[in-house]
Amino acid sequence: MASKASTVKRAQRIRRSLKKVSGSRPRLSVHRSSKHIYAQVIDDTKGHTLAAASTIEADLKGNLKTGADTAAATAVGKLLAERAIKAGVKEVVFDRGAYIYHGRVKALAEAAREGGLSF
């Protein structure tokens, strides 16, 4: 299992490479824990969160069996895409953090693409 320091270094390395290619596009950041998944669309130039969604929200929590499966990640991705488009964001850069593009992270990304975000 990776140590905390190596996980942070990996996330910083990925974020640094994203800043080079992002241009002025906001960043779709994903965080997953053992019980929930969280996603935000962040404007790094201003330092503001434009849209956010997670499995701890009341409207999602009641409809999901658990917050820690791919079905929950799909629901969060669709909700985030809907909120981001409402905020005027259509193109983002996907920041997977220190997580590999697999499982819940991949399900969230694909649901966000189906919801109308392009990355």
Count of all domains: 1
Strand content: 15-25%
Q: Would you tell me the structural class of the helices and strands?
A: alpha+beta
Mean pLDDT figure: 94
CATH class division? Alpha Beta
CA(first)-CA(last) distance: 30 Å
Question: What topology, given as strand order, has the largest sheet?
Answer: 3-2-1-4
Q: What is the CATH architecture annotation?
A: 2-Layer Sandwich
- Which stretches of 5+ consecutive residues score pLDDT under 50? none
Number of beta-strand segments? 4
Count of helical segments?
Answer: 4
Largest sheet: 4 strands, mixed
Helix content: 40-55%
Radius of gyration: 14 Å
Silhouette:
globular
Order of helices and strands: HEEEHHEH
Classify the fold: give the CATH topology: Nucleotidyltransferase, domain 5
Would you kindly provide a brief summary of this structure?
The protein has helices at 4-22, 58-61, 70-86, 104-114, and strands at 27-32, 37-43, 48-54, 93-95.
Structure, explained:
The chain has 119 residues and is α+β, with helices and mostly antiparallel strands. The chain has a single domain (4-114), classed as Nucleotidyltransferase, domain 5, CATH 3.30.420. Helix content is 43%, strand content 19%. It is built from 4 helices and 4 strands. It has helices spanning 4-22, 58-61, 70-86, 104-114, and strands at 27-32, 37-43, 48-54, 93-95. A 4-stranded mixed sheet has the order 3-2-1-4. Helix 3 (70-86) packs parallel to helix 4. The mean pLDDT is 94.
